[in-house]
# Entry
Amino acid sequence: MKGIKIFTSLAAIVFALSISMHVMAQVPQMDASKLKAATDKMKVDTKASTVNWKAEKVTGEHVGTINIKSGELVNEGGSIKGGTIVMDMTSIVCTDIADPSTNAKLIGHLKSDDFFSVEKNNTATFEITNIKVISAKKVTITGNMSIKGITNEQSFEATTSLVGGKMNITGIMKIDRTKYKVVYGSGSVFDDLGDKMI
# Structure
């Protein structure tokens, strides 16, 4: 019964991705408006980069991670103009539920057709279409997010930093799950509320 309550409550969630990208190429300066790289395409360090997810619900929240499968940023004329990040949805884990059985049930549910349909759609992709410079260390990133084969435009604010000669980009993207048909028809009293909370 405990597991059922958890899954029902997840019908009313705000889903957010905290994306931290570490670029493998050396870059000579940190100014986001004139960021230069040695090559036109800079690979994202998938081992050092992370995607943290948070699902907020009426009674609390759950958190976890998703691995980045691949990624690259495109440099044109000394500025970042685009790029692609591919997330491995099969790698989704929950980090806040200690009980192995309950944790496994939650992840199984998130991977099912009730949520992300991972067996049919094992990756999610974010294709960067525009980067607007706010300051030397802050940008607004806009792109097309594809989840379950459904694509919507998403924008989020991110910060850039230079660590050990390599660029890091960190930001939080809030996702309206209903736009990607991530709508669990549980019959929960929170269903309608959840769809309007975002």
Q: What stands out?
A: The CA atoms of residues 18 and 172 lie 4 Å apart. The two ends are 28 Å apart (CA to CA). Confidence is low (pLDDT under 50) at residues 1-14, 25-39, 185-198. The chain is about 15% helix and 55% strand.
